[in-house]
Every structure is written in structure tokens, then in C-alpha cells.
Specification:
mainly alpha, 65% helix
Length: 65
């Protein structure tokens, strides 16, 4: 009989906790702000980096042969 009481008690607690979780109300969410500014443009730095990487790769290939 003791196990039966524990099951009933656990069931009641589960139901009550569920009601408390659903009843959690609050103020409405804040209005979203303006979109963030556009990031830094990808320009010459990317091209220079690609050229340096290409030259480094060619150097490694020549050195390994």
C-alpha cells in the first residue's frame, strides 16, 4: 500500500508542477530593435590573402619535389 501512496503523491505533484509551469506569465517580450549594421566589406584583403596562400602552396610543392 505504501508504493500506491507514493505513486499517487508523485502523480499529484507532477500535475501541480505542470500547472505552475504553464501559469508562468510575464510582461510581453520587448519590441525588437533595428537590424545590426552591415559588417565590414570583403574587398582587397581577400584577394591578397588568396594570392599569398597560392604562392605559399606553390613554394611548398616545389620544395617537396
Amino acid at each position: 500500500m505504501m508504493i500506491q501512496n507514493k505513486r499517487i503523491f508523485a502523480s499529484i505533484l507532477f500535475v501541480l508542477i505542470s500547472f505552475v509551469c504553464v501559469a508562468q506569465g510575464g510582461p510581453p517580450p520587448p519590441v525588437p530593435g533595428p537590424p545590426p549594421p552591415v559588417g565590414a566589406p570583403i574587398d582587397g584583403g581577400l584577394l591578397i590573402g588568396a594570392c599569398v596562400a597560392l604562392c605559399y602552396g606553390i613554394k611548398k610543392l616545389i620544395k617537396s619535389n
